[in-house]
Write a structure and sequence with these properties.
CATH architecture: 3-Layer(aba) Sandwich
Number of helices: 6
Structural class: mainly alpha
Radius of gyration: 16 Å
Helix content: 40-55%
Strand order of the largest sheet: 1-2-3
Distance between the termini: 17 Å
CATH class: Alpha Beta
Number of strands: 3
Length: 193
Amino acid sequence: MEPFRGSIPFSAHHIGATTAYNLNKKNSTTKSHEKLFQVIERIRKNDIVMLCFGEIDCRIHIYYQHKKSNEKYSMEELIDRTISNYGEVMAQLKDRGINFCVYCVSPATKVENEYKYPFYGTPEIRSQINRTFNEKLKLFCETNGYKFIDIYDEVAAKDGLMLKEYMSDDIHLNRRAVRLVRAEIRDKMGIEI
């Protein structure tokens, strides 16, 4: 979401430290489901909603839950569950007739374990999580007829980590990525923005 703040015609709505995994849950501690649908209630008829969730899941929670379970749950299984939960929200938007697309998760970076989780993947592990998450999310969207905005390969180096020229900080893409997103929206949705 970071590169879209102040990038016309985008209107970025940050709804807190939200995970794709919990986005479908009403009355969660972050109230992310309610916050998202409060934003949805305010959109205009011709607006397009671009969902940007999954970064926190990939950076922190998938590996953490994998290790916390003593590897009972594979990272792939946790990715699948996260996308399934996220998909429930996509289905709710479709049922409401909302014109939306799903934005890919950005590549991993070398950011350290800033929140001091007891289990935190190396950049290489997080890079693989992000790549796998995006591949599965793309397939999920294609299977369900949802538009998937994918700039991942254009902003990732060969090692899967975010290219420096696209970094705004230790985690987020900078505004250079917006041009790539605009091109994807034009190609996937036939809309010039």
